[in-house]
Structure formats: C-alpha cells, structure tokens
Specification:
single chain, mainly alpha, globular
Amino acid sequence: MSTAPDVRTVERQGTDVIAESDRKGTPRGLFWPWFAANVSVLGLSYGSFVLGLSYGSFVLGFGTSLLQATVVSVVGVAFSFLLCGIVAIAGKRGSAPTMVLSRAAFGVRGNRLPSFLSWVLTVGWETALASLAVLATSTVFRELGWDDGVVTKLVALLVVAALVVGAGIAGFDVIMRLQTVITVVTAVLTVVYVVLAVPSIDPGALGALPAGSTQNVVGALVLVMTGFGLGWVNAAADYSRYLPRSSSTGGVVWWTTFGGALAPAVLVVVGVLLAGSSKDLDAAIRIDPIGALTTILPVWFLIPFALVAILGLVGGAVLDIYSSGLALLSAGVRIPRPVAAGVDGVFMVAGAVYVVFFAKDFVSPFQAFLVTLGVPVAAWAGVFMADVLLRRRAYADTELDDVRGRYGDVRWSAIGLVVLGTALGWGLVTNTYGVPAWLNWQGYLLGPFGLGGRTGAWAYANLGVLVALVVGFVGTVLGARGSVRRQEAGA
C-alpha cells in the first residue's frame, strides 16, 4: 500500500496501534498482498478436492458435477473472502492487528483464547504451504530426471524457510514490496500454465460427471470456504491497519474481497476441468497437490512452473507468518514481533518436516486440519464480524490494552458463543479419513439430530462450520448491540 516502502529496516511494530503519521496508502493497495497470497497454483488442486471423485475408493465423501463444482467454487471463494473484507474494516478503524481489535468483543484478557486459536491456524497454514513448496520442488526434479530425494527436499525446505521467515521478521514494508513482485511473476506464469493445460481438458469426461446430492454440494462449499477466505479471516485487518482512518470503508471491503477471490475463483474452476478430465491426475493430486500438476506439462516449462508454484506458496506463507507472530503477541506472549515471527518459523519447519518426510499423503491431514480448526475459527469470525458491523465509530486505541477500560477484562457472552458454536460444530463434522485417527470422535450430534450418524448422507457435508459461523454472528447481533453502544459512548 505504501508507494515508497522503506525495505532497509526491520519493522518494530508489534501489537501497537499504528501512529497517524505512519498510516499511508489507499484501499486499492490492498489488492496486491491479497492477490499475491492467493494466486498460488494450489487453487488448481482444489478442483480435485471439490469434485471429490473416488473412482472406486473412498476419498472425501462427496462428488459433484461440473456445473455444481463450478458454482460451488465461485460462490464459496467469493463469499469467504467477503468475510475477510468485513473484518478488514476493523483494521482501518482501529489501526491495530486483527486479534488486538478482537479484544473489543471478547475483553482484553478474554481475547487470549481466540488469539491462541488464530495462532494455531496461521502456523498450520504456513506449515501446509511450506510443505507443498518442498513437495513441488521434489516432483519437478523427478520429472527432469534429477535427484528428488532427501537432500533435494532438505535444500528446498531451507530455501523456502529462509524466504518465509526472513520476510516475516523484516515486516510490513518488505512484505508489501515482495508481494507486488510475486503478484506480477506468478500471475504471468500461471496464465501460461493454464494455456498449456487446456489441451488436457476432456469435454466428454466432464459431461459424464454425475450430479451430486445436496449434502455433497454443501460439503464441497464448506471445503472451499475453509480452504480460502476462512483461512485468512483471522488476519484480515493486519494489512488494512496501515490505512488512514478516512479511507473508504466500501473500498476496504471491495479491494480485500476482490484481491483475495479473483485468482482462486478462476484457478479452482480450471482445476475442476483438469481433474474431471483425468482419473490419473485426480488421484495424483491427493498425494502431491502441486507436483501432480507437472505431469501434464512439457519439459521446457517445468522450471518456470517450479518458480510460479514456489513463489505463490511463499507469498501465502509470508502473510501467514507475519499474522501468526501478531497472534502470538495478542495471546499474551511478551517478546518482540521479529522474535515472534522467528518462533513461528521453528514450528513451521518442524511441521513441514513431518508432512514431507513422514506423512503418507497430504490431503488427509490437510482436510482434518481445515475442518477441525475451521469450526472454532468460524465461531470467532461470526462474533467478530457482527461486532464490527454493529459499530459506527473508531476504536478507543488506548483502552484496547486496559482491562479496566471500556472493553473490559473478559466478556463471557462472546466466549460462550465461541464455546457453544464449537461444541455444536464439532458435533456436525466428521474426520474419519484415517489421518489423524484421534479425531474420529467428531460428528457426535449427527445421530441425535437425525442426520444419519457418522456414516449417513450428511456425514461429510461439514455443516458444523456453517453452524458455528451462524451461532457466533446471530448471537452477537441479538445480544451485544447494547454493550457496543455503551462502549462507543465511552461508558
């Protein structure tokens, strides 16, 4: 957003409110970080996830036709990033990180619970993206006939970790400059990939895809929502906080939503066309979502593909590690922001080592991660978005750290909504994919609610994510209007 960022220094801002003199840019500048973080070719792999094709073996429990998958992809991506756009309003009004502004709804110390959840979510995402970058590098090396073994993977992991952690430690201005470069390079190379992939599309195979049930469509929609906008919603105000408070609210919502949704909406639909055309490609994507995409490429484009894949994944991981560091500070850990980013980098590398060298596949643990954390995060998002929409004035900056201020110490009603939404949500989702097996206790309400139990038609619709979102939002709209008005009146 800055027209001339100073990339020579490390950002020292942590959970501080951004000073008026440091606020800069326009809402239009939000397009760059959001587009760069989501132009990753991982969006192509979601085409396989959305179709949920089994081809004789159980995979994700739902299947959709070409039309259903296309509608679900566009609607799910756009709506989920609209949620990010709403949360970004708070950044413009309060000039503080998302999980600091969340204190207005949960209380200063009460907000430590959602801050911890946010930290786990963002560390999980940066781990997933770093792992995919390493797996993609290994696959490209194999396709070129080079060594794709342990040494190659270790070197790739070191390079990816250096880029992600280095940018996370450097901070906002370096990230904004890096994201602009990534946007241009990855956008151009992604377009080339799509052009080269078009001959692999088989209209006959696509036309033969059977239509899925209502439950299948809902499950695919939830998967898209949790995989895209809901994965970013807890960090959506971290970049709008640098905007002047006079910036257009509508502009903040639009450029956040548009920047985040544009690339994924197109890429997922293209991914649907590719996965629906080839059983072999669909099966390969489940094991190596990025590397599998190289199997339909000419050899001369493998190196450029590796570049676009790694840069796109790094772009997303950089935003995640920046926001995860802020979430860690918001949870009450008292260390400098650059140190927090470094700590998160250690967890990211450890997680990536497990996924790359020990996990049997990528999709199973990734799906379990999205569903399990998606429920409490959706409940928090519902509470926070409702709180943002109820407000009409800027936040009282100095009181966001004061347990005796207008926002209070612990707001039990908001915490109660997250707990209730999570309890209901986990009861309406399933994680019986076998990885990890200790999550198989979920889905305990599917039977009592008459939805067929863990093996019924609604087992994989993952209604719990939507239920948690609605519980948090509606509960706050109905119960917090008065408290918000008293806060804004200074009471």
